[in-house]
UniProtKB/TrEMBL annotation:
Family indicated by similarity: Belongs to the DNA glycosylase MPG family.
Its EC number(s): 3.2.2.-
Species for this entry: Heyndrickxia faecalis
Pfam families on file: Pur_DNA_glyco (PF02245)
Class of the enzyme per the UniProt entry, highest EC level: hydrolase
Protein name: Putative 3-methyladenine DNA glycosylase
HAMAP family noted in UniProt: 3MGH
Amino acid sequence: MPLPADFFKKDTLELARALLGCLLVKETEEGTAAGFIVETEAYMGASDRAAHSYGNRRTKRTEIMYHGPGHVYTYQMHTHCLVNVVSGREGTPEAILIRALEPFMGTELMFARRKVKEAKQLTNGPGKLAKALGITMEDYGRVFYERPLFIAEGYEPEQIETGPRIGIDNTDEAKHYPYRFWIKENRYVSRRA
DNA sequence: ATACCGATGCTCT
DNA sequence: GAGCATCGGTATA
């Protein structure tokens, strides 16, 4: 069961924490794959140098971030597709990147898609989890409160840790913001602190 | 364990 | 035509 649309109507940093422990589900013709979200990163829109929507940049790519919380923002990075949850009120272009999952169901399908040996390698990175679940640019513009790509209730994380975001060294002051959140001691987190 | 490097595709200038 | 919110291989320790 998808969470209701209202779940996404939170302050972006609060939503980034609330998403930890939730289940991300993708249904395809090949079957269903799902995993618990264990790592997220917040991108704070107009005022955040590291955000695609910095300074309210509005292009074909960033357009969906203006359409209100709960939308699916997929973005192509080199050969990979990255998945984001749009946050903030309509007109406020904020988003949360999903960086890692703990596989829950459909692991055979994930292994078939990823071609790796260790379970840890299935979903411990933003490009990896998108491929494991079969998420593509086709999902751009959908909503996370309806099938076939949705977020459902999961478990309550014991302890949450925070730190600077990964891979944004070129955006001077923004690189220090503690906008990365992960579940402490979870082995599927993409990198240790 | 960390470090570097090339692949490869889409968006924006 | 440049620039990336990445990944997997190879290289070294």
